[in-house]
């Protein structure tokens, strides 16, 4: 699949402005550049004041910096969002069915639709979860699905984030910032709201409380202030009106989880955990973990507490499992996938490895357990030396890698140092699964600020935009 043409979100091939951007483009043209410059400076100052930061690993200037915010929004028309939303609901429903199946009946494995060894031998598969009853059979209550547009404008799912997906706080803060800076834009556009996401999240978590609990106590479990996404943990706890806790604030007694408070122990029913599996319970996982709660898995197995997301969800968002998601949709739902995967070469297969090695300068190669834009090769943007280094990695451990065509990610006008220029972007909508599957219109748009870069991750220096879904 050769996708070399860049789809521009705002302008068509003939240079005309797309209909859903027309009103915004007119406003942008009539707004003095000095006002835009002032508003951009104001946004930077406000983000700094609010402490909206992100860790950028490998930078010498320090571990924390402002997450760059661009004031040109990404706009999605109502009909386009409707199709995207349907595809996201379908995909996450199938992923939850898959996780439930592999920890229980394993029907999809017995049917030979996915190789058993790909699941059972996966580093993210947790045998401790076999047979554990999970409320509503929902393992991934919060999913962040990374979607890109390529070619003539078709959407592709790049990856599924089902463990502890992050970024929703930036979606909310970007909207808050745009409404503060440019209230007139919200008067002339019918933009679907996103501010109710914390209420939807809380209702989703409460709906998954253990059986018999009518007024559940919900907490957000964070690794602590040194975690790169700590701002988000604190923000979501505050927005939901629940306690933000660390492992040391909780303890397990008689297979129940309690929170230490000044009034004495308080039972906890639902934990929105932002701590990775390995660190959740030193009794069963990493013995040296100071971030988790000893005995938490016992309480979970006993059905006395709900963890969102569940332990062991990572097996379903591993890049070696990603190629099988369309098959999951067919197997569990009896439907054809609405959203396409990116064609993927599984390097553990000899024929796929041979093709990958022969076409390294054209492909993107990723570690199956990698995340955040690390451990990957973008062939067209790499030097010969980098390509040859990756060739050695592939030949030594082919099972650790997948390869994909270099998608011509869509771009959108973005304010950069040289002025307004096109930059590549993606979209991470957040799908909530409780007693129903729902999502707010839009998501986090991430933009690659470096010219020509296809890596949009904030941890790699990318920025964010507000995402507008227009109401019909």
UniProtKB/TrEMBL annotation:
TM regions (residue ranges): none
SUPFAM superfamilies recorded: Glutathione synthetase ATP-binding domain-like
Domain of life: Bacteria
Domain Circularly permuted ATP-grasp type: 73-448
Classification via Gene3D superfamilies: 3.30.1490.270, 3.40.50.11290
Protein's UniProt name: Circularly permuted ATP-grasp type 2 domain-containing protein
